[in-house]
Amino acid sequence: MAVIHEWVQDALSDVKSGQTIMVGGFGLIGAPLTLIDGLTRKDVGGLTIVSNNLGEAGEGLGILLRQQKIRKAIGSYFTSNREVGEAFKQGEIDLQLLPQGTLAEAIRAGGAGIGGFYTKTGVGTELAKGKEERQIDGVPYLLEKALRADVAIIRAHKADTLGNLIYYKTARNFNPLMATAANLVIAEVDEIVAPGELSPEEIVTPQLFVDRLLVAKKVLTKEGVVNRA
Amino acid sequence: MSIVHEMIAKRAAAELQGPCVVNLGIGIPTLVANYIEDDVVHFHTENGLLGVTEVGEVDPNLVNAGKLPVGEKAGAAFFNSAESFGMIRGGHVDVAILGVLQVDENGRIANWAIPGRNIIGVGGAMDLLVGAKKVIVTTTHTTKDGKSKLLKECTFPITSTRSVDMVITDLAVFDVVEERLILKELMPEVTLEEVRRRTEAHFIVGGLLDEHPVT
């Protein structure tokens, strides 16, 4: 059963320096912007972030990057924030680049008790360097390891008080996967309702995956990221 | 986007006959949707939507892989990123139309990294190459400074060892058959001599070369 927090710093109370943190979202879309903002105000550093991107320049995870709180990032497309390339060149951050499907599957595997998997993606490319290649039925595959984290911060649309979650349009992306793959899962949502108000048929993330809930105070709108009144 | 880009996109659109599921990359491929009226051509976007259509009211949480606002058509479905790439790697996407930096004479492409610059983004490019049943690439034939993008060998890192199936440029259309480029069509007002002059890669002139394609 999930604990509902009113304050972001309470929700983040067990986040510590040096931890690995999964952060949902495809850029800012479906990113837990209130929890990320909380991390920018918290005294932590040396974080390993698992996320498709590192936000955009000065937005979302881009703020944590500027604060030099990120030691390493694991993702698929850091190009969308120019400052990541700069930080990488200066040696301020370590990057592990994975094809987007491999990143998603590694998180899924991590949450499902699977240590790794063989994929066709990346065979014969620069991203295959250092990875075991194996022929299965005559087809070459690469071994990719699963990913897990100490904490996942994710964005969903609605929760019930138990922690069951539903999502909104393309803001779903990596969020339901990350909900399964961390020791502590914190979800921020638009609304928290009573059990029974969400149809069991529509629940995407069952409540056993979710530890903490917070109502979103920073949201993405057509005008950009704004504070919700 | 220029008239040249629109012409390439329109030619690529002619390859799509429903029912089929199509993934469009960023850039010229995005324009292809503008030329499709067949309502059983279903567009897939890897960030988690099957049934992409033109944008109506802008919703910041309803976007394509280029983070541009899109619409959802009747019968659309949303899903998570692992399921989306399962569709791609698992061979459930019929056609991927992708942009490209270079194509070699075996039809292999480079579209994700430039040497000398930081290699910090790959996105879904490699997954689409290994998984889509058919891959069509759309590109201008030459770079801004006039160098051929169709090369003997890619000088940029390749995206996959798999060859694409078709290359559509502003000068010509090539099929890739048994890892060889076969010139299939010339674009309007383009001569074979011009294609030869502006192509570094070796190619074979197809037996049924159509010098006057429908446009």
Automatic annotation (TrEMBL), chain A:
Gene3D superfamilies: Glutaconate Coenzyme A-transferase (3.40.1080.10). InterPro entries: 3-oxoacid_CoA-transf_A, CoA_trans_fam_I, NagB/RpiA_transferase-like. Signal peptide: none annotated. Coiled coil: none annotated. One of its GO terms (molecular function) is CoA-transferase activity. NCBIfam families: pcaI_scoA_fam (TIGR02429). PANTHER family: ACETATE COA-TRANSFERASE SUBUNIT ALPHA, KETOACID-COENZYME A TRANSFERASE. This is Succinyl-CoA:3-ketoacid coenzyme A transferase subunit A.
